[in-house]
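re: ur question from yesterday

yeah so i grabbed the chain u mentioned. its 179 aa long if i counted rite. heres the sequnce exactly as i have it in my notes:
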Amino acid sequence: MRSRVPTEAIKSAIASKRLWLTLLAIIITFLCFFPSRAQKMKNQSFSQTNTDHQCIANLKRIGKLIKRHLHHSAGVLGFPTNLDTIYSMSLDPKLFICPADKEINTSIKGDSLRTSYEIVNDPLKPELSATPPDRIAIIAEKRPNHNDKRFVLFYDLSVREFDEAQFKELKSNSFILRN
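ran it thru and got these structure tokens back, copy pasting raw so excuse formatting
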């Protein structure tokens, strides 16, 4: 003999499942069409500083490409003197252009690299061997693109912001941070 489950219990279980599925659909619909206040605030602050974040990310990625270049060549090729060498290692040409750079020359033809950044120092120079990596600037923006400030990448892959006076001082110190 088979045991029978009362039909009322089956109907109750089906109704309970339907209720949960309906509630789940309502919650998902609500979350999709009505983002939270925190998401709105995050989007507002992100859009205000998006170019800064992108420029910093670009510099850090270029720095990682340089480190990879040094690693794969076992240092034989030395530190690159310009970004052309590193450009060939990148899959993203936008990496070399700061999104805030409005003065980048768009009329360059041929194989010339368009970039907002430049290599400013070789951290592998013997005279810099005692200098900590967080004090040696290696890449800087060519122009102050961020409210009259520019970002500079250091050999430890940290990025700092400099106004024009600070940048001139850094430049006069051969791109070594002295303070």
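noticed a couple things. The beta strands are 117-119, 137-141, 149-154, 159-163. also The two ends are 90 Å apart (CA to CA).
anyway ttyl
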